[in-house]
Amino acid sequence: MTDNSSIAFVMKEAKEAMPAPITTTGPLAWTRENLFSSPLNTALTILSLIFLAWMVPGLVQWAFVDAVWVAGSIDECRQLSSEGACWAVITARFDQFMFGFYPEDLRWRPILAFVLLCVALLPVLWDAVPARKQLFAFSAVYPLVAFVLLWGDGWVFQSVSSSDFGGFLLTIIIGVTGISFSLPLGILLALGRNSNMPFIKIICVTFIEFIRGVPLITLLFVASTLLNYFLPPGTSFDLILRVLIMVTLFASAYMAEVIRGGLAALNKGQYEAADALGLTYWQSMYLIVLPQALKISIPGIVNTFIGLFKDTTLVSVIGLLDPLGIIQPILADSTWNGLVVELYVFVGLFFFAFCFAMSRYSMYLERKLSTGDRH
């Protein structure tokens, strides 16, 4: 008689992995872990659901069900619906919110500039873009293309005065310019602050500490008024250009400190390894140190970008009509006098959309660059 217990079983083919239990993965597991993981979390979840059940129906009724989308005045809005939102003011002044006082027959130019901006950002934000190297070349010359499109050159395009700029067009110009130029300038300032050359270090430290110690609104006033006193007589220095310079310098000082924190967080062995490989200073920065420092600094960098984008609203104090500046003449117009909430909600949603997009991209970038070194 053969003892079957002594016969070895050899699997000749791999079996398919069984799915994980629904209590450990998927929506049910996420809900259990994040919403009902403890008695306190359960109580807070229930209270939040009760609050939403009380608030959301009324908000939907005001913002959508009873809302008025087309009307000629606030009186007409109230006649059509006395309880709903009067979004007709946004419909009536939409072009002004978008372009300020940019000539109507030339508005195709800022629209084209925005489309080209999206094209220029593709190779910068995503590495799987076809023909990425060629698009990088376009990204490098895009600032000049955008300037010619928006302001004109007097030969190919009709010139447009900076006083005609306003609304979300002005916000995007200031925000994108400040974000694009503050990062490389901030990197140079951070490296200069860590430099062993006393003269370079003193200049960078003085600049960073001075800019960080002065409110942005003060720098904007300097850009709009005092800066003209230091220019040669008869010199015309465009106001928006002055604002772009000041906003970029302001953001670069904060960016330098964020990146300096990333540099300080690196292990000293990374610098020693670069020296052991015989790399020059700039080679070690480009190939070893900066990629790691920037990866560590991603949350702080994006946080600075978001703060800069929201701070663009401060230009209204020097006479530039950004979205908040556009609201003031609307409120002074007897046709719409009395509408406040709808205007600020619309502007707030615009800023939320852009800032939320930057936040989500930051999270995507962190996941993409994650090397699995979390424990």
Automatic annotation (TrEMBL):
The record's Pfam families line, in alphabetical order, gives: BPD_transp_1
Question: Which key words are in the record?
Answer: Cell membrane, Membrane, Transmembrane, Transmembrane helix, Transport
ABC transmembrane type-1 domain location is 168-362
Please classify the protein's predominant subcellular localization into one broad category: membrane
Q: Which GO terms describe its cellular component?
A: ATP-binding cassette (ABC) transporter complex
The record's subcellular locations are: Cell inner membrane; Cell membrane
One of the record's GO molecular function terms? transmembrane transporter activity
Transmembrane residue ranges: 42-64, 108-128, 135-156, 168-191, 203-227, 239-259, 313-331, 343-361
Q: Which GO terms describe its biological process?
A: amino acid transport
Q: Which domain of life is it from?
A: Bacteria
Which InterPro entries does UniProt cross-reference here? AA_ABC_transptr_permease_3TM, ArtM/GltK/GlnP/TcyL/YhdX-like, MetI-like, MetI-like_sf
Q: How does it sit in the bilayer?
A: Multi-pass membrane protein
Entry's family note: Belongs to the binding-protein-dependent transport system permease family. HisMQ subfamily.
Please state what the protein is called: Amino acid ABC transporter permease
